[in-house]
């Protein structure tokens, strides 16, 4: 019985000393679980409420709202990866309309996917093939603004430079 109480003391001290820590959502979740296990319902509810209000998009908040979140997220990510492979294959085969449709459906269905940047970059590649170049350039600029941390950002910048050169050389 001393172990959970020691953990609670340590976690509460950590939150007090480092309230802006990147570990705050995990600490709040741990405090919620510890207090729940100890049947300290008021304290558990306090940490649950703080986690949900302060870090509503964290994995830990999602776990409180849906205990099956990790299992469902893994299944969703598997579906997203499969959809991306299909969309890319369609793109490679020149089936741009079908690839574009699959990208749109996937982005609409899985709003919080990890690889949204890959789908949107593939959409930009399709735009460059089948749409007005100025529109494609605008979409590339939007991609760069939306995903500044993407691993695809350098490719997007390079592609943007080439697209602008082609547009100027018309």
Question: How would you describe what is shown here?
Answer:
The protein has about 170 residues and is an all-alpha fold. The protein has 2 domains: about 1-65, no CATH class; about 70-170, Alpha Horseshoe (Serine Threonine Protein Phosphatase 5, Tetratricopeptide repeat), CATH 1.25.40.10. The chain has helices spanning about 1-15, 25-35, 40-55, 60-65, 70-90, 95-110, 115-130, 135-145, 155-170. α7 runs antiparallel to α8 (about 135-145). The termini are far apart.
Contiguous helical run count: 9
Q: How many runs of DSSP E, i.e. beta strands?
A: 0
What's the Cα radius of gyration? 23 Å
CATH class of the largest domain: Mainly Alpha
Order of helices and strands: HHHHHHHHH
Characteristics:
Serine Threonine Protein Phosphatase 5, Tetratricopeptide repeat; mainly alpha; 2 domains; 170 residues; single chain; elongated
Any chance you could write out the topology, listing elements then pairs?
Elements: H1 2-17, H2 24-37, H3 41-54, H4 59-65, H5 69-92, H6 96-109, H7 116-130, H8 133-146, H9 153-168
Helix pairs in contact: 1-2, 2-3, 2-4, 5-6, 5-7, 6-7, 7-8, 8-9
Short description:
With 170 residues, this protein is an all-alpha fold. The protein has helices at residues 2-17, 24-37, 41-54, 59-65, 69-92, 96-109, 116-130, 133-146, 153-168. The chain is built from nine helices and no strands.
């Amino acid at each position: 019985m001393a172990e959970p109480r020691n953990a609670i003391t340590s976690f509460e001290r950590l939150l007090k000393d480092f309230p802006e820590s990147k570990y705050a959502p995990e600490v709040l979740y741990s405090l919620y679980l510890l207090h729940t296990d100890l049947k300290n319902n008021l304290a558990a509810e306090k940490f649950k409420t703080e986690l949900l209000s302060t870090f509503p998009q964290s994995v830990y908040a999602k776990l409180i709202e849906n205990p099956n979140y990790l299992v469902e997220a893994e299944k969703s990510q598997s579906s997203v990866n499969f959809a991306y492979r299909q969309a890319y294959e369609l793109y490679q085969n020149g089936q741009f309309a079908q690839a574009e449709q699959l990208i749109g459906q996937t982005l609409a269905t899985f709003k919080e996917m990890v690889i949204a940047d890959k789908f949107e970059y593939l959409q930009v590649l399709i735009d460059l093939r089948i749409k007005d170049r100025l529109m494609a350039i605008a979409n590339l600029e939007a991609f760069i603004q939306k995903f500044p941390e993407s691993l695809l950002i350098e490719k997007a910048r390079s592609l943007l430079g080439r697209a602008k050169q082609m547009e100027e050389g018309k």
